[in-house]
Amino acid sequence: MKFLYDLFPVILFFIVYKLFGIYEATAAAIAATIAQIAWAKITTGKVDNALIMSGVIIVVFGGATLWLQDESFIKWKPTILYWVFTVGLLGSQWLFKRNLIRGLMEKQITMPDPIWSRLNLAWAIFFLLLGFLNLYVAYNYSTDLWVDFKLFGTMGLMFVFVIGQTLLLNKHITEQDKK
Asked: What is the residue range of the signal peptide feature?
């Protein structure tokens, strides 16, 4: 259910784009993200940092899209978000000696430190490349195709990446983790 909740603004963007256009879809994505932030605050009393970051980026880039009537800003939004994730993953590990991926997953699985470092690096590289791929699609194909890619392409790539990571990490997961 959380997966659909997290994808709500993207799915809404896709639907509204197909029905009305890029500017209406951008406004819907901004509203949906603000609603998500408000809902999280009301129901749990706290808002996840990634959601806050996504909210700031969609308001800034989506707002620029609407204000300037230039769709290139909204096309940059996923790339900026992915690159913020990249910087966060690498910066936290290299500057603060804190592995964010480990922090998210260590309650579920136990692995040696070097494996956690490689996993963190793999995610950082994945987000970096996904950002470049988003720009490539945005500027070399139609907006229609970019919108399709934004939902289905990135979700598909994420799914394949997670499956690949799971297969690679499986040999490092202890028997206790499998219980």
From this structure: none
